[in-house]
Amino acid sequence: MDATFDAVVVGSGPNGLSAAIVLQKHGLNVLLIEGKDTIGGGMRTMELTLPGFKHDVCSAIHPMAAAGPFFKTLPLDQYGLEFIHAKTLAGHPLPDGSVVSLHRSLFETADHLGKDKKAYIDLLKPLCDHWDTLSPDILSPLKFPKNPIKLGLFGINALKPSTLLAHKFKETNTRALWAGMAAHGIQPLTNIATSAIGMVLMAAGHHSGWPMIKGGSQSLADALANYFLSIGGKIEKGKMITHHSQLPNAKLVMFDLSPKNLLKIAGDKFSKLYRWQLSRYRYGMGVYKMDFALSQPIPWKSEALKGAGTVHLGGTLEDITKSEKLVWEGKYSENPYVLLSQQSLFDNTRSPEGYHTAWAYCHVPAGSERNMTSTIEDQIEKHAPGFKDTIIGKHTFNSKEIENYNPNYIGGDINSGVQDWSQIFTRPALRTSPYRTSFKNYYICSASTPPGGGVHGMGGYYAAKRAIKDLF
């Protein structure tokens, strides 16, 4: 690594890869450095249970990869990326045995919501209709929007706590569907602006679906990396950067890292104020993750769940609100909100013929080492009697193990920081640009910057654009 580069990007998650691509396309000579032997960050696929069973280590379903504005501009299909769409985007069973579902069609979804049909359409149709013009503003740092009136109409509802916006709905099943979407935010549903998470996920689904990626999430990372290489970029793997002295000379350095790790690597270069700001950055709840190798598809009681790519378990709005509040307070729920994906139903590359996989996690207190295996399995078994009998292999990650696997997931926080009202736009620190550090030409581009977590690459995109403006 004695060569001199125009730009160095540390970390190959979706944001690091996006930043590297933007910089390289601008004509810079870019080196991407990845600490592990494979690139991808949260986009990795491994045989975690048994040979031939491919499991997504972190991200599994990709609504924002399909609906986000940046990836659409890249010819990733020419590099092996193939989206697979399930018949139903997401299913949500209730305690009475009924199921409410999110479908690709806004109107098909609304048609099954009884008295809430009009309220649901009124809430989401404006966002769905204008997704292509609004998403660049929604998935961006704080700035004057290109469409202030339309974005303002979205913001009126998006800034509300999920529990408050739920008052628009009268039906128990609609409220449960809404809670399952909002709980992706990994924070109490009573928090301000948690409605934004639910609205964006639903609208993205109606616009572009909730696809999985053929062969696993690693295929998206590989497509981005191979495109980057095709335009002249360079990648070095297996080089874990622990101090800035390990970096080659470059005009700028971009870090796809959490603030905690950025401080470890480059804290001695930063101002006292910036170090203080980064040290105060708040991380959220952790997750307990499970992967299953199965002898057959999950035996759901409801036929509606057998065609769903994603299943939200946890019951009613009230149930999910309670469980998320308990975890936020450092406690454990016996009826946790569980996110489950069953990719092998739609992608036969995920498992040997005749066998299947399942991917699931629940939220737990940060840094938790408690074994939640039986709790997650019991939650699935409620709605799929006989599920446990289909398990032929399993793999678990507690929150501490998740952080050990990916040091950016502090305490098992896969969103790389709480996405509440005080950190949505100011993450990781309140500055003229959230991507600039206090040291000239050092930038941060991770999920700890706007617009936050999710596989969309927009943090890297905007960070690279900021650096280019500063450099030229």
Automatic annotation (TrEMBL):
Origin: domain of life: Bacteria
What's a Pfam family this protein contains? NAD_binding_8
Name used for this protein in its record: FAD dependent oxidoreductase
